[in-house]
């Protein structure tokens, strides 16, 4: 069985980060080791959330794993709580990157043109440094804009998206994937770039008129799981976009927007079915 490690926080309630990554990637048949970077009562869209920093455990856990000769087929990072944690992850990557695995970074920092509570410009620039070590980066347009110090615009052309993708791969990664991309009013999806083949790839579904928290984490978890299930990047992107669409639609039938995340659980059979094909 392949083994991945994912490094991000546990938001105890609100269906994002580890409470999404662990069930989804496990359901896809991948052993999912974790390093929790912090424990929060909820994600940061709620008010008065608690935050227990677990930074001091990160390199201790790495040290123990090294002693046990542990290897990972993929290293997947999501929400990180501080610049100090970014520095620790650089160290972690140096210790655990091999010729046979890949680093997958979702630089979770913001959405809709704004950084989430607790982040600033400096954090974004440090995250950009971390992305230089990645094989695959998966920002949304807000996160890419902050890292590349580009103005964020609600409207953009296909040429501008291509430019951003090329700039992201110029940092180091072979693949850059921008999420939340739309070129037509009723479409929403992703655009990806493979710098080795110099090819772009897009995949869209019809836009469901709502917004839920945590869908970026559902997307990244599914994408990395699908890649580890030997799908091409294009096929893995389709699986991830389709699964996110299914989870949003299932949730939309019951409730309008909210911070409690999507019903990814009820669509796990759909995901497993897709993986088997
Ligand atoms: O879904 C991304 C995410 C993860 N973890 C925490 C968050 C967020 C987004 O707001 O606050 C703690």
| Total number of beta strands | 11
Strand content: 15-25%
Q: What CATH architecture would you give?
A: 3-Layer(aba) Sandwich
Q: Encode the helix/strand succession as letters.
A: EHEEHEHEEEHEHHEEEHHH
Class, according to the CATH hierarchy?
A: Alpha Beta
Q: Which topology does CATH recognise?
A: UDP-N-acetylmuramoyl-L-alanine:D-glutamate ligase
How large, in whole angstroms, is the Cα Rg? 17 Å
Q: What does the main sheet amount to?
A: 9 strands, mixed
Taken together, the total number of domains comes to: 1
Residue-averaged pLDDT = 97
The CATH superfamily turns out to be Ribokinase
Write down the overall geometry.
Answer: globular
What is the SS-derived class?
alpha/beta
The residue ranges in which pLDDT falls below 50 over 5 or more consecutive positions are: none
Please list the strands of the largest sheet in the order they lie side by side: 3-2-1-4-5-8-9-10-11
**Tally of alpha and pi helices:** 9
Tell me which ligands are bound. Answer: 3-hydroxy-5-(hydroxymethyl)-2-methylisonicotinaldehyde
What percent of residues adopt helix (DSSP H or I)? Answer: 40-55%
Question: Could you give the distance between the termini?
Answer: 18 Å
Describe this structure in words.
A hairpin with a 4-residue loop joins strand 10 and strand 11. Helix 4 packs across helix 5. The longest helix is centred in the C-terminal third of the chain and has 20 residues. The chain has 277 residues and is of the alpha/beta class. It has one domain: Ribokinase (UDP-N-acetylmuramoyl-L-alanine:D-glutamate ligase). It is built from 9 helices and 11 strands. The two termini are 18 Å apart. It has a 9-stranded mixed sheet with strand order 3-2-1-4-5-8-9-10-11, sandwiched between helices. It has a two-stranded antiparallel ribbon with strand order 6-7. The structure holds 3-hydroxy-5-(hydroxymethyl)-2-methylisonicotinaldehyde. The site of 3-hydroxy-5-(hydroxymethyl)-2-methylisonicotinaldehyde (PXL) has 14 residues, from strand 1 and helix 7.
């Amino acid at each position: 069985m392949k083994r991945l490690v994912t490094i991000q926080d546990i938001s105890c309630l609100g269906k994002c980060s580890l409470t999404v990554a662990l069930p989804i990637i496990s359901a896809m048949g991948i052993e999912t080791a974790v390093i929790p970077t912090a424990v929060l009562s909820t994600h940061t869209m709620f008010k008065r959330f608690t935050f227990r920093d677990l930074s001091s455990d990160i390199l201790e856990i790495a040290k123990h794993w090294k002693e046990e000769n542990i290897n990972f087929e993929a290293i997947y990072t999501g929400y990180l709580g501080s610049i100090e944690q970014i520095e620790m992850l650089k160290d972690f990557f140096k210790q655990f990157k091999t010729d046979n695995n890949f680093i997958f970074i979702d630089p979770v920092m913001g959405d809709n043109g704004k950084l989430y509570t607790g982040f600033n410009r400096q954090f974004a620039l440090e995250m950009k440094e971390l992305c230089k070590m990645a094989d695959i980066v998966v920002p949304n347009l807000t996160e890419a804009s902050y890292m590349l110090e580009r103005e964020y615009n609600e409207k953009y052309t296909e040429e501008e998206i291509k430019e951003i993708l090329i700039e992201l791969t110029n940092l180091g990664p072979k693949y850059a994937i921008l999420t939340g991309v739309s070129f037509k009013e009723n479409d929403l999806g992703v655009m990806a770039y493979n710098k080795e083949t110099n090819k772009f790839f897009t995949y869209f579904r019809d836009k469901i008129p709502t917004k839920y928290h945590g869908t970026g984490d559902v997307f990244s978890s599914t994408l990395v799981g699908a890649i580890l299930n030997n799908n091409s990047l294009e096929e893995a992107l389709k699986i991830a976009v389709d699964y996110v669409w299914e989870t949003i639609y299932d949730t939309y039938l019951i409730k309008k927007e909210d911070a409690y995340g999507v019903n990814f659980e009820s669509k796990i059979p759909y995901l497993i079915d897709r993986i088997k094909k």
